[in-house]
């Protein structure tokens, strides 16, 4: 069993740090790129996506002009242990709508209703929810009441309704993260460790995977919406 808690302001440091660690551990699941651990760029995305989530958690204090909310699942037997989190962005000008930004459940606690319980808490506040996921996760969210709307890059756009909201979602500009000194230093270290050729191959591998995922998502949505029509 888990305990579900909503945060509208920054969570305690102990929760913040556990969420950060989960992002690092499960960056393949959390990242849009779905970067594989075997890819030499993996460490770069661990830092980059981890820092993205860190900035969103910080933004919960209102300092960045963003609306950010967080739902955390903790182990009922060990209340200090975070076993899942759901970070989402309420939509401006539409009090019923929000957009899921990141979600993860700790290994060992999956398939136990943790994600569903977090989603349910969010849906009680915002019945009109949008999210994007890889094709393989579509059945999971369909079981929670989401439906396929469209393809968006390498992911499938899903919603609790048959249309998106007309409101706006304010998001962080993450481009500066990937231009930062820290990322350049990580890249330089990886270059030294793996060599230039391996790093060029790693980027090509990532891009090929993204192209393949994009084609897969587009074909899946065309087939699914064709069936629905």
Description:
The mean pLDDT is 94. Strands 1-2-3-4-5-7-6 form a seven-stranded mixed β-sheet, sandwiched between helices. It starts with a strand and ends with a helix. It has one domain: Gcn5-related N-acetyltransferase (GNAT) (Aminopeptidase), CATH 3.40.630. The protein has helices at residues 13-25, 27-30, 42-58, 114-125, 138-142, 175-178, 181-194, 196-228, and strands at 2-7, 69-75, 78-90, 97-105, 128-133, 147-152, 155-159. By secondary structure, the chain is of the alpha+beta class. It comes from Pseudomonas batumici. It holds the Pfam family Acetyltransf_1. InterPro entries: Acyl_CoA_acyltransferase, GNAT_dom. Keywords: Transferase.
Percent helix, as a range, is: 40-55%
Poorly predicted sequence stretches spanning 5 or more consecutive residues: none
Using the coordinates shown, work out and report the CATH topology: Aminopeptidase
Q: Largest sheet, order of strands side by side?
A: 1-2-3-4-5-7-6
**CATH H-level homologous superfamily name:** Gcn5-related N-acetyltransferase (GNAT)
CATH level 1 class label: Alpha Beta
Q: Structural class of the secondary elements? A: alpha+beta
Secondary-structure element sequence?
EHHHEEEHEHEEHHH
Question: Radius of gyration over alpha carbons?
Answer: 18 Å
Shape: globular
For the sheet with most strands, the description reads: 7 strands, mixed
Integer average pLDDT: 94
GO molecular function: acyltransferase activity, transferring groups other than amino-acyl groups
Organism: Pseudomonas batumici
Protein name: Acetyltransferase, GNAT family
Keywords: Transferase
């Amino acid at each position: 069993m888990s305990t579900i808690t909503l945060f509208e302001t920054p969570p305690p440091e102990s929760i913040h740090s556990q969420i950060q660690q989960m992002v690092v551990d499960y960056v393949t699941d959390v990242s849009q790129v779905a970067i594989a651990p075997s890819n030499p760029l993996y460490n770069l995305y661990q830092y980059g996506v981890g820092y993205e989530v860190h900035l969103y958690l910080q933004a919960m204090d209102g300092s960045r002009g963003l609306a950010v909310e967080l739902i955390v699942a903790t182990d009922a037997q060990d209340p200090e242990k975070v076993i899942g989190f759901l970070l989402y962005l309420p939509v401006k000008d539409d009090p019923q709508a929000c957009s899921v930004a990141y979600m993860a459940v700790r290994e060992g606690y999956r398939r136990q209703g943790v994600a569903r319980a977090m989603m349910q808490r969010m849906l009680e506040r915002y019945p009109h929810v949008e999210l994007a996921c890889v094709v393989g996760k579509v059945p999971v969210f369909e079981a929670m009441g989401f439906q396929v709307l469209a393809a968006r890059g390498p992911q499938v756009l899903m919603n609790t309704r048959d249309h998106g909201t007309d409101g706006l979602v304010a998001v962080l500009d993450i481009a500066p993260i990937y231009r930062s000194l820290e990322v350049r230093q990580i890249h330089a270290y990886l270059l030294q460790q793996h060599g230039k050729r391996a790093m060029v191959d790693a980027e090509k591998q990532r891009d090929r995977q993204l192209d393949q995922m994009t084609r897969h998502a587009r074909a899946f949505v065309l087939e699914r919406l064709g069936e629905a029509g």
